[in-house]
Amino acid sequence: MPGSDPERRPAVMARRAHKVFYVLGPGDTLRLLTMRRPTEVFQALSEISFEVPQGEFFGVLGRNGAGKSTLLRLLGGAYSPTRGQVYADGPTSAIYELGVGGNDRLTGREFAIRWFSLYGTAGAKLEDVLDEVVQFSELGEYFDRPIFTYSSGMAGRLYFAVATVLPGQIYLIDEVLAVGDEYFQHKSWRRMRSRLAEGASGVLATHDFTAVLKLCDKALILDGGRITAQGAAPAIVRRYLELEPPTGGASFIGLDDRSVPFAVQTEQDLAIELVVESDVDLPLLIGVSIETFQRGIGWEHLLQLDPTVIGSGKGRHRIELLVPRIPLNAGEYSLNLFLVAQPDPAVFSYNVLDARSWSHGSGLTVLVTGPERDGLFRLPVCWSHAEAAAV
Q1: What's the CA gap between 99 and 51, in Å, rounded?
Q2: Which DSSP symbol is given to 328?
Q3: CA distances from 305 to 91, 285, 309, 343 (A)
Q4: H/E element holding 201?
């Protein structure tokens, strides 16, 4: 299995899972009655294998019709695999595509009660959970009205609130983080971050690559029911978006093999030497940023320098980047370098010639060592103290 860890039981796993649907045609009703299979079949999923470690979310990217929703239903037990295995280590809380929430003649409260009965939630605990659902969804009096009277946004808020109110679940979610207006989307992300902090696991099926970058450590791409790529989320997003590194001809950033991270202690100088080769007769600039990935938030810019002139014209340029007393706490960070040319210094526009960035599959790593501390930065704060005169 890809990424398998024999000492760590996965939260979710699929092993060579297949799903076939039989398509009914003329005369196939009789074939079913005589226990014979219909003549036409649809292969929805084929050879699906992946696993999700405890405490992580896994992204499933794909266009409409790629098989994402079918895969979630397989993992959640709504479908059985035609062949192969699927497994979830604990109770699953699943929202498939929005709008599929059961009987829309039920009120929001009745829908929630039926949902929680699956998890044995009853009595005073049920009342507390229902109160939290109505508070989070902000449905007010509509909570006791039939769901068919809701707008699509109201229904989505109900389904999300119900599916994520219980901690300790394995969440199977399909596009649900895009529900509602911008305000409710922020609420949804806050809840998912809190669930991650509590150790939740899950699978997010979506075509929204930004959600995968925010939430998931690893991901795969589905196309026609088959996995076309699988790996670290940033690399899979690049593949999904078909992002290619800039091609600046013979202009490039030259570095030694950087499979080993740049290492520096916190509050010590970070010095990086590199060579720039250029075949363009234009002013050359280099931009620098340091970023980090925070689960539930995504990639965050920590330090960024605007493009700085490093030379002009064709030739070979030696560059040294110095970050004095790097203010980052211990951790692993992404270093991004961008080589650009400026056709007209009077106009704020650049031609990207080369890039070393996680978004282009060529990122560099900075490993900061030192004492473990909360937060990302160590700000150079100085305190002073003096006795105040008596009043």
Answers
A1: 28
A2: B
A3: 47, 11, 12, 20
A4: strand 201-206
Instruction: Tell the residue number behind the tokens 């604990």, with chain if given.
Output: 90
- Biggest alpha carbon distance in the chain? 101
Which residue reads 């990935």 in tokens?
A: 293
Side by side, which strands form the sheet with 218-223? 92-95, 170-174, 201-206, 57-61, 218-223, 226-232
The radius of gyration of the chain from alpha carbons, rounded to an integer in Å, stands at: 26
Cα(47)–Cα(83) distance, integer angstroms:
9
Domains identified in the chain and CATH numbers: 12-241 (3.40.50.300), 252-369 (2.70.50.60)
**Strand duo 170-174 + 92-95: pairing:** parallel
Helix (H) or strand (E) holding 21: strand 12-23
123, two tokens? 């009595």
d(C-alpha 388, C-alpha 326), whole Å: 36
Position 24 scores a pLDDT of 64
Residues in the chain: 391
Report the helix count and the strand count for the chain, using DSSP H and E.
Answer: 8, 18
**CA pair distance 12, 86, nearest whole angstrom:** 8
Mean pLDDT by groups of 10 residues along the chain of 391 residues: 56 95 65 59 93 93 91 90 93 67 83 85 86 94 94 87 85 74 81 85 88 88 95 87 63 70 91 86 88 73 83 83 90 88 73 80 85 82 83 67
Burial class (CB in 10 A: 0-12, 13-18, 19+), 99: exposed
First vs last C-alpha separation in the chain: 74
